[in-house]
Amino acid sequence: MTHAAVSSADHSSVDSAAFLREGRAHLGIELGSTRIKAALVDDGGTVLGTGSHAWENELVEDSWTYSLDAAWDGIRDCYADLVRDVRERHEVELTQLASFGISAMMHGYLPLDADGEQLAPFRTWRNTYTADAAALLSRTFALNIPLRWSISHLVHAILGGEEHVGRIDTLTTLAGSVHQRLTGRRVLGVGDASGMFPIAASGTDYDPELLERFAALDEVAGLPWSLSQILPEVLTAGQGAGSLTAEGAALLDPTGALQPGAVAAPPEGDAGTGMVATQAVDPRTGNVSAGTSAFAMVVLEGRLSGPREEIDLVTTPAGHPVAMIHTNNCTTDLDAWLGLFSRFAELIGHPVGDEELYGALFGAGAAGEADAGGVLSYNYVSGEHQTGVPSGRPLLVREQEARFTLENFMRSQLYGAFGALAVGMEALLKDEGVQLDVMYAHGGIFRTQGVAQQVLADALATPVAVGESAGEGGAWGMALLAAFTARQQAGSDRSAGSHRDDRAPAAESLSDFLAQQIFASQELVTLHPEESGMAGHATWLEGYRTGLQVERLAGEVLD
């Protein structure tokens, strides 16, 4: 199979330099759970520069959060890193962009007042204390409303009588908040909006019937606002979402070099950018994004049998229905274990770099027994709704007769990273009978070629494809959405001084744009599930399900 990973054409350094000097490049910035990343691309998706900034969430007063000050410090540092990279690669000072887009972790709670000031700490998707609110909404809507959705967090605050609720002017996401400050527009891409409140069948706006049901709840009576007033406007991929203002340019680049005017793409969630970065936007395709959390997105051909707690119904950035399997935990505990091995290597006088360390230990995992020899790993740094674990504690446990080798330990760690995801995907693929031709995967865990990819293929009994962008997909996916927006706007708005291509078509689907302009000629590695691997994983998963009782008890007795 062929498929584009990063680019559709080769560009000489002279061409790229001219492209950059003319202000024709497209920028994507994604605020992920552990890194803020930037990718700058040309019209064909070729990466012209990258930047990054490391950050971490904090547990403050029993809530997982990131401060907005830390977010902005990180965004500026990430952009400065991108500028340095462009200067070193192309000997060009970055002063102008054709388009840009902001992406971030979906869901959570970020209320603002009429002046745009934050009313409460940003409560991330990782918080699971919204069970009562989510249950109330699920009953009211006859639809599964997940704990992490923004509407669940809002109702949690209402039920708790939190003082700030009456002063809410805008309820948004992290991406929406950043976009608003850069452009002055209070909007969201439909993919990100679908993690706030259910989207209508049209795929273009919030469900009006469910908005009415919400308004009829006794619990919200007397509030000085309606939900439709405080939620951001919904936009689909390619629609204009404003432009970079002078104030926004100064926020992004305090040196003053960056000029305003770049076209803004609708801000999106990390699930949507992952779908774009892997071209998983058509029915019978899906993608897995693996990082601190993991989620699988499967584009649906038809309706499911009914509401299911394991499955969220969201959308692609173009508004097509998607079944989402989300897990709160993925690589955090695995990274911690590998950090322990790295420290051991330092102590014995043989330090190793991350690439070598991960390659060696992932290779050991690939050589482990297919059932991991009776070794079980639970990566639950936080609670995990997919498996009914309210409060997570990372746990390694093995049977008395287990074959506890490094190979089996690492095999179990890799299985554990996708353990909760495998449980959720069974509901979709087996119970609901959803058909998949291929799952595209991206995230740092796939950078070691073939190992985590084969594990996932065996776990899902589905071919898994990985491209060159697997480790850096989100920011690149957002940059592609920015390029698509610039291309779409060129067809309807040929304003003087624009750097858009006047030959661009006025109307083009996101699917066609990705297939024809980005993913037309590039290589992709696809691994198919193996019989021995599927059988071994099934045995391991059975033990994993049984051992969940131990994991739940650990959360009860260990503070």
Short descriptors:
Nucleotidyltransferase, domain 5, Sugar (Pentulose or hexulose) kinase, kinase activity, disordered N terminus, alpha/beta, 559 residues, 6-stranded mixed β-sheet
Can you walk through the features of this model?
There is one protein chain. By secondary structure, this protein is α/β, with parallel strands linked by helices. The chain folds into 2 domains: 13-272 and 472-518, 2-Layer Sandwich (Nucleotidyltransferase, domain 5), CATH 3.30.420; 282-445 and 458-464 and 531-559, 2-Layer Sandwich (Nucleotidyltransferase, domain 5), CATH 3.30.420. It contains 18 helices and 21 strands. The protein has helices at 13-21, 68-90, 131-141, 150-159, 174-183, 190-193, 208-215, 227-230, 246-252, 270-277, 332-347, 354-366, 406-417, 419-431, 451-460, 473-492, 510-518, 531-557, and strands spanning 26-31, 35-41, 47-54, 58-60, 63-65, 99-104, 110-112, 170-172, 187-189, 233-235, 263-264, 268-269, 285-290, 294-299, 312-315, 321-327, 375-378, 395-398, 438-442, 464-466, 525-527. The strands form 6 sheets. The protein has a 7-stranded mixed sheet with strand order 15-16-14-13-19-20-21, sandwiched between helices. Strands 1, 2, 3, 6, 11 and 12 form a 6-stranded mixed sheet that branches. The termini are far apart. 52% of the residues are buried.
